[in-house]
């Protein structure tokens, strides 16, 4: 087939070699329109189709049919194709064997690292360190781009308040204020200043919308909530990512208020494009267009394709419904070709923005691939953010840090010697075999100690036959480090649990070891808040390490040894038990609040457990202590145009340096709708030497107190407010102020 070289197009001036800057919008639009004008309807529909590469033991492979689709211009993007050579070969098919030579877009789930794997996002969010979270995205982008990738399906910014849902591991916790800041940091990290740079990639805000609120925490289940809660909580991180310039958005599998997101004009057009001004492209989640049939929202394939394209969905991931039906729908007049053109424009714009028309092979570079993957610099950055992700939950009698002089350590438990589990779910191109296990981390940190290991039990089995060996090992030690938790694949997609207990015989193993009276340090690796009510009583020290990624073992040893003083704080509430779910810090007061009549029968409470969580949002201990004092407001009353200045003194009253995440919350005591008892409105992570004190100052624009009032208008309301500062959502001190008309 004689191919019309795209770069022969009028108005397309090809810069030799590396393009140096993002083309201006007008020239970009001209180039897009110029190319669009040459495309057949079939070629246009091809740009709206995304298919997966496959894997076999040798690595990514491409089904024969997909190769034919690429050569015939029926597919415009491929995901799960990784590697400079492999992507180059696929790209050559598109560029050299199709009529117009339009380059492919290569996407992949680079969620928390590419080959250097960082902590799962829920763990990373506990650093509250936006610069660190941006850096990990930058490194991930650099490594992904070195392997031919242009686009990551990340960040996942779904708010969730339900630990039964497996994908809480993938998000930034329960709070939309923090979640929005993380979304911004991640988009900036992935996309950088200029998408022309070959170490930046397109980001993808997912899963739009409210995927994190499935009924009963059951994966893919129904989402139903008021428009007020949708807008005030769940939509904010998506909007923050889009405001940060996210290039793409992914639709969620779930329905919202009866309409599947993938067919929702309200979400995809009214809010996303008209209200928020999003000008990138929308891709569905995996076969989500086909799932409109299962939802009972589309009657057949053609109807599903029509609903999706009319809703504003630009690219069909893996269903093939656009490829199968859009040409026919346009030719029959059921769908306007202008809709197709709009979607094609949005996709071509991103391909131009990446510089793929100047050089379609610019990301498939074996030299960069060898230089940048898992470099020492990247691994050190991973170790740093991993140790900052660790949350110290208990440390009775200063059991930790462990002295370097310790001689005999018993290391027990199903997560103690695991490498694969350390990289968690959604670790894409990561290789678990390259991860540092806790055992390896401890051996490196305590080279003179005897570290006796026994698994004790499996992660998720009732078998207790390993207990006796574990007990014997423990008896001969000075201290027991017990590594418990979940398997990596017990969280992530399609991994909801009806129990948040430690799986298998792990609690039974803990019960037996507790009887020995040895110092017991429990190290947790898990992808969700667990019910730690018993464990928290039994453990002398309890350390939440999530799944920390490639450098897990070293990062945990850094904390257990005190080489690094833990600073992480929870971004998701830990309930006392399953029955409390959903439980989150920013709940409503109700008409019969417990604290009005603490011993009263007729108050909002349970018969069998107190209302407070086991560990609240924002909770985390340090090896030192911090005092909070001298809280002041610069005004006792304010107007909506004012800014409130809040200050306090934080002092490190302990004996060693430490970092503290100082949190700022606000309560609106009376509103035209009821208001949460607290809302996070600021935080600062400060480092203090032993004995050092610092004046911490927050400036709070009163406009930040805006909300959707009873008539759904967005703004502030006069009345009494309280500002809190504290070390977590429960441990705060407050001062009131009046917001005037
Ligand atoms: C999955 C996930 C989504 C991911 C996509 C491609 O089903 O829901 O997060 O990006 O498929 O792997």
From TrEMBL:
GO molecular-function terms, A-Z: hydrolase activity
Segments forming domain Fibronectin type III-like: 660-729
Coiled-coil regions, chain positions: none
InterPro entries, per database record: Cellulose_Degrad_GH3 (IPR051915), Fn3-like (IPR026891), GH (IPR017853), Glyco_hydro_3_AS (IPR019800), Glyco_hydro_3_C (IPR002772), Glyco_hydro_3_C_sf (IPR036881), Glyco_hydro_3_N (IPR001764), Glyco_hydro_3_N_sf (IPR036962)
Reaction equation(s) it catalyzes: Hydrolysis of terminal, non-reducing beta-D-glucosyl residues with release of beta-D-glucose
Key words, A-Z: Glycosidase, Hydrolase, Signal
Keyword match Cytoplasm: no
Domain of life: Bacteria
Documented EC number(s): 3.2.1.21
Pfam family, one: Glyco_hydro_3_C
Family the UniProt entry places it in: Belongs to the glycosyl hydrolase 3 family.
Protein name: beta-glucosidase
């Amino acid at each position: 087939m004689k191919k019309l070289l795209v770069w022969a197009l009028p108005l397309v001036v090809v810069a030799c070699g590396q393009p140096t800057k993002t083309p201006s919008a007008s020239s970009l639009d001209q180039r897009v329109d110029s190319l669009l004008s040459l495309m057949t309807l079939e070629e246009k529909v091809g740009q709206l189709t995304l298919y997966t590469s496959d894997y076999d033991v040798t690595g990514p492979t491409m089904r024969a049919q997909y190769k034919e689709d690429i050569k015939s211009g029926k597919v415009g993007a491929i995901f799960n194709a990784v590697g400079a050579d492999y992507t180059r070969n696929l790209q050559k098919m598109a560029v050299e064997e199709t009529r117009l030579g339009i380059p492919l877009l290569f996407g992949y789930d680079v969620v928390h690292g590419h080959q250097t794997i960082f902590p799962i996002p829920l763990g990373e969010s506990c650093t509250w360190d936006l610069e660190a979270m941006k850096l990990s995205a930058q490194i991930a982008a650099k490594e992904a781009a070195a392997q031919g990738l242009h686009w990551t399906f990340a960040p996942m910014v779904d708010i969730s308040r339900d630990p039964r849902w497996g994908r809480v591991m993938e998000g930034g916790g329960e709070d939309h204020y923090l979640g929005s800041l993380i979304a911004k940091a991640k988009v900036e990290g992935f996309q950088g200043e200029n998408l022309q740079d070959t170490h930046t990639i397109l980001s993808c805000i997912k899963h739009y919308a409210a995927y994190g609120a499935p009924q009963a925490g059951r994966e893919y289940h129904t989402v139903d909530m008021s428009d007020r809660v949708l807008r005030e909580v769940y939509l904010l991180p998506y909007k923050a990512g889009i405001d940060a310039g996210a290039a793409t958005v992914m639709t969620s599998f779930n329905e919202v208020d009866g309409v599947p997101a993938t067919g929702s004009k309200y979400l995809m057009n009214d809010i996303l494009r008209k209200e928020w001004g999003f000008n990138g492209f929308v891709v569905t989640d995996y076969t989500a267009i086909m799932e409109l049939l299962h939802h009972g929202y589309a009657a057949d394939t053609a109807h599903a394709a029509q609903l999706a394209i009319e809703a504003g969905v630009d690219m069909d991931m893996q269903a093939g419904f656009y490829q199968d039906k859009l040409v026919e729908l346009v030719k029959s007049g059921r769908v306007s070709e202008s809709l197709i053109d709009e979607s094609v424009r949005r996709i071509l714009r991103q391909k131009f923005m990446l510089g793929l028309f100047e050089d379609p092979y610019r990301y498939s570079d074996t030299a960069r691939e060898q230089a940048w993957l898992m470099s020492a610099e990247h691994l050190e950055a991973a170790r740093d953010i991993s140790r900052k992700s660790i949350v110290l939950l208990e440390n009775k009698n200063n059991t930790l840090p462990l002295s370097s002089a310790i001689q005999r350590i018993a290391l027990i438990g199903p997560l103690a010697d695991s490498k694969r589990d350390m990289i968690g779910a959604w670790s894409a191109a990561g290789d678990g075999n390259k991860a540092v296990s806790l055992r390896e981390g401890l051996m490196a940190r305590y080279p003179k100690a005897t570290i006796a290991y026994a698994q004790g039990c499996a992660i998720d089995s009732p078998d207790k036959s390993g207990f006796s060996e574990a007990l014997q090992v423990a008896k001969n030690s000075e201290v027991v480090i017990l590594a418990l938790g979940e398997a990596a694949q017990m969280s992530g997609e399609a991994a909801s649990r009806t129990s948040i207990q430690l799986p298998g015989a792990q609690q039974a193993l803990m019960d037996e070891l507790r009887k020995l009276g040895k110092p017991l340090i429990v190290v947790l690796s898990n992808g969700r808040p667990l019910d730690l009510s018993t464990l928290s009583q039994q453990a002398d020290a309890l350390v939440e390490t999530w799944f920390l990624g490639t450098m897990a073992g070293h990062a945990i040893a850094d904390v257990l040894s005190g080489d690094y003083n833990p600073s992480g704080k929870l971004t998701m509430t830990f309930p006392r038990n399953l029955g409390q779910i959903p439980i989150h810090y920013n709940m409503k007061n109700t008409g019969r609040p417990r604290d009005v009549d603490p011993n009263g029968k007729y108050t909002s409470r349970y018969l069998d457990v107190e209302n407070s969580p086991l560990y609240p949002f924002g909770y985390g201990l340090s090896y030192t202590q911090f005092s909070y004092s001298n809280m002041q407001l610069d005004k006792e009353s304010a107007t909506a145009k004012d800014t409130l200045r809040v200050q306090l003194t934080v002092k490190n009253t302990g004996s060693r340096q430490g970092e503290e995440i100082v949190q700022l919350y606000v309560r609106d005591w009376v509103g035209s709708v009821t208001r949460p008892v607290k809302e996070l409105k600021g935080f600062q992570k400060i480092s203090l030497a032993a004995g050092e004190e610092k004046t911490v100052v927050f400036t709070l624009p009163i406009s930040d107190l805006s909300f959707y009032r009873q008539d759904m208008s967005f703004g502030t309301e006069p009345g009494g407010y309280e500002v809190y500062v504290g070390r977590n959502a429960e441990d705060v001190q407050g001062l009131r102020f009046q917001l005037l008309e």
